[in-house]
Write a structure and sequence with these properties.
By secondary structure, the protein is mostly helical. The protein is built from 16 helices and no strands.
Length: 428
């Protein structure tokens, strides 16, 4: 099989899988907008960054450990299985810590993210349920990463697609026929990664699998070694959460709860777009890791070209669709036909989505750098676009241009980061 055919195989399945994952958050937003209205969207958007923490931790541990797993296996080491055992242990450990916090302090969490008394009352049960199920989200990401790196992207794709379909169907069942409202949305979302884990187990426990759970002492050293290359994935995933937190606080001061609801619409649509581009980045990661381990520089160069061109194609489609279907996208979530909400979201979509021109390049470039063990450059890229630049542009431009400045800060951050990404990967 040629490198191009492998690229198509891995990327197509990862894009489908990642879009499926994002759809269950989108389904939450849609059904909550119908059942609860703007206050429900506001409550959901305030805690949305916590999903980024779970996905980010899962990717940091899973992608980082599976990269080391692939490299050790390509080099002929017999100890590559240790990384799988290690990732499961630390994934459970972090997940249980979040479970305790979510179970005991859901109101404090909402207040921390800026919720007033009304929003706390609306979102308290939702927050408690989905955070308590944190281990499921983290372990699902870890298992998916290892199955993908163990040569079975098809199972990884099916795991994400079927878990997402479960969430969408049971969102409706729990919220409407069973009248569980926000609690039903949280329960459907929290159970869905369990479906993904069970499907991944089809490969993990098969005869073709090199993933074996064996008794071993957890190694902090190997965990840190894996996180060195996985940290950029964590920051890349967290960047959307950081953007959401920052924007929520800035918007609350400028436009109040209705502004946060408008941003909730934008953030959830953007989540699907971000997922498709992240699918390209995660799709080429196992291929670049393997080529790097075998010293195949020419194939790495081809993968970079394929990744960048595909991401630019997807980005162009995203921007075009956002301009052609702005009003229909807003109306899906604006069940109360709130004029102010629609007006804020309309302007936001048309500015914010231009930033996706840079997002694809940055995600693919970051994945290439991590897969080649260029942890320093990948970390600088991730920390710059995920924290430093977005905070700088967000605060500055919101002071100068209000809500329009908030939307434009995302665009500025991604385009500046793209320059750094292209420079760092110019010789690959």
């Amino acid at each position: 099989m040629t490198i191009f055919n492998r690229f198509i195989q891995y990327v197509s399945r990862n894009v489908a899988g990642k879009i499926a994952v994002s759809l269950y958050v989108l389904a939450d937003t849609y059904f909550i907008s119908k059942a609860v209205g703007a206050n429900g969207i506001t409550a959901l958007n305030l805690v949305l960054p916590i999903y980024s923490v779970f996905f980010g931790l899962g990717d940091m541990i899973g992608v980082g450990s599976s990269i080391r797993f692939s490299q050790e296996k390509a080099n002929g080491s017999k100890k590559y299985h240790i990384y799988f055992n290690n990732s499961i242990f630390f994934g459970c450990l972090f997940g249980l810590m979040f479970s305790i916090i979510g179970l005991l302090f859901p109101e404090r969490i909402l207040q921390f993210f800026g919720a007033d008394a009304t929003i706390v009352q609306t979102g308290r049960t939702y927050t408690r349920i989905f955070i308590t199920l944190a281990p499921c989200f983290i372990l699902n990401q870890i298992c998916n990463s290892f199955v993908r790196n163990d040569g079975n992207p098809g199972i990884a794709m099916h795991a994400t697609i079927w878990s997402s379909l479960f969430n969408i169907v049971f969102d409706y069942i729990f919220m409407f026929p069973m009248h569980m409202s926000m609690a039903g949305a949280a329960l459907a979302t929290g159970i869905s990664p369990i479906i993904g884990i069970l499907i991944c187990c089809v490969h993990i426990f098969s005869k073709k699998s090199d993933l074996h759970l064996k008794r071993s002492i957890p190694s902090i050293k190997k965990f840190m070694h894996a996180c060195q290359v996985g940290i950029s994935c964590f920051i890349a995933e967290m960047s959307s959460g950081i953007i959401t937190i920052l924007f929520n606080f800035l918007i609350l001061n400028i436009a109040g709860n209705i502004g946060v609801a408008a941003y909730g619409i934008i953030a959830n649509i953007a989540l699907v777009c971000m997922a498709s581009l992240n699918g390209i980045a995660l799709g080429i990661q196992p291929l670049v890791s393997k080529c790097f381990g075998l010293g195949q520089k020419e194939d790495i160069s081809k993968l970079k070209k394929y990744g960048y061109l595909t991401s630019l194609l997807f980005s162009g489609i995203i921007v075009l669709v956002s301009y052609l279907f702005t009003d229909p996208m807003i109306n899906i979530f604006n069940s109360e036909q709130n004029v102010e909400l629609a007006k804020l979201a309309y302007v936001g979509i048309r500015i914010y989505f231009i930033g996706f021109i840079g997002v694809g390049i940055n995600l693919v470039g970051g994945s290439i750098l991590s897969s080649m063990s260029r942890a320093k450059e990948a970390f600088i890229l991730s920390i710059s676009r995920g924290f430093i630049l977005i905070c700088f542009f967000g605060i500055l431009l919101s002071q100068l241009f209000g809500m329009s400045g908030i939307w434009a800060s995302f665009v500025s951050c991604e385009l500046v980061s793209m320059i750094y990404t292209l420079y760092q990967t110019r010789n690959e």
